[in-house]
Amino acid sequence: MTTKNIINTLHADPAWQEGEFHQAILNFGYDEWQKRGNDWDFEDMVDYVQDTLGHLARWLFIMGKYDQQVCNGGHRQWINNGYAGLDEADLPPSFTAQDLPFLCDLVRDSRRFLSNDLIGRYIGIFDNMEKLNRKRVSWSDDDDDYFDNFDELDNYYYTVNEQFMKELNAYVATKF
C-alpha cells in the first residue's frame, strides 16, 4: 500500500471523519490486529503502525493506549494488560519503569514530537513518568498494594488528561 493510500485509509476512518484523529490512528492498528488474530499482540500493533505510518504515529498509538488504560484502571491496568511493554506476570519482583519499554518511549519521544508549547503545559505528565523511571517498585503476588507507588502519577494524570488529549488530537490533525 502506498503512503497516499495509507493516509486515505486513515482519513476514511469514521473516527477521523468525526474529528477523532487520534482515535483513527488507534483504529488503524487495531483493525490490522483484528485481521491477524491471536498471533499478534500489542507490540506487533505498535510495530505495524510505525512501519506504515511512521515513528510519530507509533508514539501516538502508545500514548493513546496509555490514556485509555490509565483512565480506565490506572497504571496498574496499563501494565497488567501488557500495554507498557511487559505485563504483570513478566515483571521481576523488583523493577523500575525502565523495565517497561513503552513508558520509556513515551517519556523520550514526547520531547521529540510535541511542541515546546504543548510540552510546557503538560510537562508534569512526563516529569512524573521520568520520576517513575527512577523509582524501584517491589512487590509480591500476594501484595495488592505494590502499585500504590503509582497513585501520585494516576492522580496527576486524571487532572490533566482530558485537556491534554484534546490538544493532542488537534496536533494529530496537523500531522497526517
Please provide a written account of the structure.
This protein is mainly α and 176 residues long. It has helices spanning 3-12, 14-17, 21-36, 42-53, 55-80, 101-113, 116-134, 151-175, and strands at residues 94-96, 136-138. It has a single domain (3-175), classed as A middle domain of Talin 1, CATH 1.20.1420. It has a two-stranded antiparallel ribbon with strand order 1-2. The two termini are 16 Å apart. The model has no long low-confidence stretch (mean pLDDT 82).
Shape: globular
Mean of all residue-level pLDDT scores: 82
Count of folded domains = 1
**What are the segments in which pLDDT stays under 50 over at least 5 consecutive residues?**
none
The overall strand count is 2
CATH third-level topology? A middle domain of Talin 1
Structural class: mainly alpha
**Rg over alpha carbons:** 16 Å
Regarding CATH, which class? Mainly Alpha
Succession of helices and strands? HHHHHEHHEH
Alpha plus pi helix count: 8
CATH architecture: Up-down Bundle
What is the terminal separation in angstroms? 16 Å
**Share of helical residues:** over 70%
In spatial order, strands of the major sheet run: 1-2
